[in-house]
Recover the amino acids of this structure.
């Protein structure tokens, strides 16, 4: 999927190198040819030098074409967007496949089930960590803050809440 983009980029780079080599060869040959034409009067020998220079340039261009292989295909201006689209598809595909695999491995079908499974796993694997995170401060004023009415699974313990409210003197109507 990515290989055509890499090949096309390599061809583009090869074309740029070939063009740079042609330009530098032309720049190197041009001053020598101009010096030769300036030294000789404008006659048939000057015309011969120009023809020789043109033939040398043409020969060098043919050599470079043979060295680099086939002519380079034109590159689409949308190649960057194509590469971005391919990379995005790979990332989302991999992430989706990973999430699906994790759900199948854990045997869950919703985020709520996944959350419960992860909490249960953390509580059984790291009980000391869970107790240190959910520790109760013995110096806390229970009358103001009340008891912890959330159990270790993060759910509301309604019976404990009802008992605390009754202890405050305000009954709960059922």
């Amino acid at each position: 999927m990515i290989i055509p983009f890499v090949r096309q980029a390599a061809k583009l780079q090869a074309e740029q190198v070939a063009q740079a080599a042609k330009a530098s060869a032309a720049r190197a040959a041009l001053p020598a040819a101009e010096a030769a034409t300036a030294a000789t009067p404008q006659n048939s020998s000057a015309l011969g030098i120009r023809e020789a220079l043109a033939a040398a340039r043409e020969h060098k261009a043919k050599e470079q074409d043979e060295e680099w292989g086939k002519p380079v295909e034109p590159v689409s201006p949308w190649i960057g967007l194509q590469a971005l689209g391919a990379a995005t598809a790979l990332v989302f595909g991999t992430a989706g496949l990973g999430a699906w695999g994790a759900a199948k491995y854990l045997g869950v079908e919703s985020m709520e089930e996944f959350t419960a499974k992860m909490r249960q796993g953390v509580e059984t694997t790291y009980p000391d960590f869970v107790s240190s995170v959910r520790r109760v401060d013995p110096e806390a004023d229970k009358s103001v803050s009340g008891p912890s009415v959330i159990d270790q699974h993060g759910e509301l313990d309604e019976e404990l809440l009802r008992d605390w409210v009754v202890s405050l003197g305000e009954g709960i109507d059922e």
Notes: Residues 3-75 form one domain. The mean pLDDT is 75. The CA atoms of residues 148 and 160 lie 8 Å apart.
